[in-house]
Design goal:
By secondary structure, the protein is α/β, with parallel strands linked by helices. It has one domain. Helix content is 38%, strand content 17%. A hairpin with a 6-residue loop joins strand 3 and strand 4. The relative contact order is 0.16.
Length: 193
């Protein structure tokens, strides 16, 4: 799964002082609500959402630590951007590849790019593109409804872009090298368009 936090503008809260700063999003330079979105690497469908959160109080890694990391199986990792650094046992570092090959870097980049495309698709809806001026609780309802509609659109319209992704090989118990990994990476690098 790829994971990313995404912010949506809201009208500036009417509360004074610290309460207003709690809603400030450095990503948008505006008051906002933040959600964590997870996209399945294999299918491109949205499989996780969490929020809304106040961006001034919780950054991406804090939201991840309070929720999604608790849902992962032992040894399971997510692909995420630099905002999720600090959980190496649960997050694949975007700048570190083992083996450090151009193919691995391209795989990671493609996964994150598709995720940004999904975020853009959510924001293409007027309710998410414009500053929300209603009760914040209703924003969460609208957000989840849009996610459902986007996933349904994959059934009846164009499917999400597919990406090639392979996790690191699991060492074999007999101590022999896992050559399937090398064969897979070679096939990816030598693919024809």
């Amino acid at each position: 799964m790829s994971v990313d936090g995404t912010d949506f503008k809201i009208n500036h809260p009417t509360a004074a002082g610290d309460a207003i700063r709690n809603y400030y999003s450095y990503k948008l330079n505006h008051s906002a609500l933040r959600y964590e979105v997870g996209v399945c690497i294999q299918t491109g469908r949205i499989v996780w959402s969490n929020g809304p959160f106040k961006p001034g109080l919780l950054n991406d890694i804090s939201i991840f630590r309070d929720s999604l990391v608790l849902e992962l199986e032992p040894g399971e990792k997510v692909e995420a951007d630099r905002g999720y650094r600090g959980e190496p046992q649960s997050v694949e570092d975007p700048d570190y590849c083992e083996p450090p090959t151009p193919a691995m870097k391209e795989m990671k980049t493609n996964v994150r790019a598709r995720h940004e495309g999904i975020n853009a698709r959510i924001k293409s809806w007027g309710a998410m593109r414009q500053a929300w001026r209603h009760n914040h609780g209703f924003h969460g309802i609208a957000f989840r409804a849009i996610i459902i509609l986007i996933n349904l659109s994959f059934d009846f319209q164009a499917e999400p872009p597919q990406v090639f992704y392979q996790t690191r090989p699991i060492p074999r118990e007999d101590g022999h090298e896992n050559t399937a990994w090398d064969d897979m990476v070679d096939a990816f690098v030598n693919r024809e368009y």
